[in-house]
Amino acid sequence: MKRLVIITFLASLGYGQGNAEHGKVVFEKLYCSACHGHDGQGGSSGPRIGTKPPAVAVLIAYVRKPAGGMPPFTAKIVSDADLTDIHAYLSSRPAPPALKDVPLLNQ
Amino acid sequence: MAKSTKTSFARRGFLKGAAVGAAAGATALVSTPQQANAQAPAAPTRGAAPPSAAQVEAERNAGSGAPPFIERPGADYMIDVIKSLGVEYFIANPGSSFRGIHESLVSYGGNKPEFITCNHEEIAAAMCNGYAKIEGKPAVTAVHGTVGTQHAAMAIYNSYCDQAPMIVLAGNRRDSSERRSYVEWVHSVQDAAAMVRDYTKWDDNPGSLEHWGESMVRGYHLATMAPQMPVMLVCDEDLQEDPYPDNFKGHIPKLPVNVQPAIDAGTANEVAKMLLAAENPVILTGKAARTPKGVQLLVELAELLQCAVVDQKRRMNFPNRHPLNQTLRQRPVLQQADLIVGLEVWDFYGSIHTLGGRFKTEARSITKADAKLISISANDLFFKSNYQTFFRNTEVDMSVAADGEASLPALIEAVKRQLTDDRKRTLAERGKKLGEAQKQALEQTRVAASQGWDSSPISTARMSMELYGAVKNEDWSLVSDSFWVSNWPQRLWDMNKHYHYIGGAGGEGVGYLAPATVGAALANKKYGRLSVSIQPDGDLMYQPGALWTAAHHRIPILILVHNNRAYHQEIMQLQRMAGQHNRGFEQCGIGTTITDPNIDYAKVAQGLGVEAFGPVTNPAELGPAIKRGVEVVKSGRPYLIDVVTQGR
Questions:
Q1: What is the pLDDT of residues B233-277, one digit of tens each?
Q2: Which residues face B372 on adjacent strands?
Q3: Rounded to whole angstroms, how far apart are CA atoms B33 and B69?
Q4: Binary contact (A41, B356; C-beta < 8 A)
Q5: Domain boundaries of chain A, sorted by first residue
Q6: Residue-range domain boundaries for chain B
Q7: Under CATH, which number does the domain A2-95 receive?
Q8: Cβ(A16)–Cβ(A29) under 8 Å?
Q9: What is the chain A residue with the closest CA to B570?
Q10: CA of A1 to nearest chain B CA: how many angstroms apart?
Q11: Is the CB of residue B436 less than 8 Å away from at least one CB of chain A?
Q12: In CATH, what number does B451-644 get?
């Protein structure tokens, strides 16, 4: 019980212990990927959220009551646990290469 | 459609009469059309002209038992008129209701303009749309007045919205007594152009060859006068197939030089005064540059004013690496503007408002309350009611009914006259700041493009930049739009020539892109340009037959299929609904995804005669594949690469 409390506490701070693999499944299943890209890289339909997503609690709060063009995902649609997994997946996405290392982006 | 007595010879009556004559002993067969008519019981009023040399010749042939012929069908004249207009291509799917024109073109006309064979009328019309956007002039397409027009209709609508001229010829047999089979009945119509009248500039249904010639030239003239649009000319089958009427000289009407409607000097002075006085003026461009000259003029005006230019990406109007191009900073630039001068702007209202709201649309102006707005557009010269291409009323301060590009010289002159050295110095400061801001925005865009650089499915930024890397040292032309790939080409490619970018489907009618890009590539061919296209998978499946046309006519084009395996936008539309109803996000793939089975676009292309490669899922393999493709295209053939991509 004590451990669970600690984990929940850590998770709420953003040290999400979420399961990245399952997070990927949910991210695709709910089509978050349609707007944010499969790796959360962003594009014209949604901002970048991969690699360095907002803290879990912030992400959950945002997804429940988003701004602008993003539809809200309530607890009926996606649980906090699943969003924590999504957070873990997004955090696991590799950082993009430095611009100077990509000649194609310097043409 | 009343026929004059002089022209009342009916081809089929003639053949019928001839058959009767043959049965009676062949003497009637010696007749020329006129004589045969005179003999035909069904057409007693037809006159008998004195025999011409041709008639004498026909008589001699007939005497030897040869059947009679029509020496000079009306369609020959139609081809003469079309040729006189300098039309390069006759792009069509063949159809019996314009077989007369078709045969005259390929035989009498020596296949000039060249017949471009298409598998569908929509392909043909969309090809004309793409062709016009590169070449700046119309191609001709032909359709059945009924089923062919129905097929071509969406592409005609796209062209209408896109302000791309084209000439649509519609075959039709008006005279019911001349229709042979039920097919001709169901392919005939009282008013063929009715179906497209709401989205063509003009149409006519000529009753004589003389009338046809006048209307063809008038149609060409109107189609190319701003705002440029499609026109339809109905081609009665009897007119096509009957011989020249007596005394018809085949006169070809003169095509006038089109002087496009331009701003008057007084108004230009007034606009120039406002532009020079404003602190943060913005030139907002929709289709400001109709021609290559338009790009030069726009650069000249913007440089004189050292003001921001924001482009709506409807075509290349203004070089996107020019320091004054502030398209990447559209929002803040428009917010700060105290004067916005729109040149051929598309949806002015939507450009200066956000249209948010979860349920009902909430429009909010993004401009300053006292910002002045001026619209210069030929759209004000041409209005129709049914299709809503006029957009929400924008409260502009001045609306100038004139063509954007044609108005630039007067604006430039007026600005030059009023520009003082003092003002020049201040303006140069403004220009410098804009240039710096643009540089920063470009850098941020590059960072954004690096996100997911190595992802699979391949990011649209990676795909776009791999393509650019492979063609940037060639004389390239991007013939697809960039909307579906987060506008990366618009944002990151160095576009500075008129043909570097031609925008997308005017009416947002899906199915435009595959054929329109092939049409644009056809126009680029004679200049030796390397046409490249980023082709969404959903659009390709509407008219994949366009690939066959590219193969058949050796139209060089490199096509990268942006294969996100979905009608991706529609997934997002369903998500919006799901979000409104608090349900069903997992079901948003039903009816919107193109999987199970995945379509193998390389095989589709190969089956249609186009060399192809893919599917490419590993971003590291994309660059080499594109290089191979470029080589094939440079040798004059089309090439397709299936790239499995992220949504947008």
A1: 999 999 999 999 999 999 999 999 999 999 999 999 999 999 999
A2: B339
A3: 8
A4: no
A5: 2-95
A6: 74-241, 265-437, 451-644
A7: 1.10.760.10
A8: no
A9: A34
A10: 33
A11: no
A12: 3.40.50.970
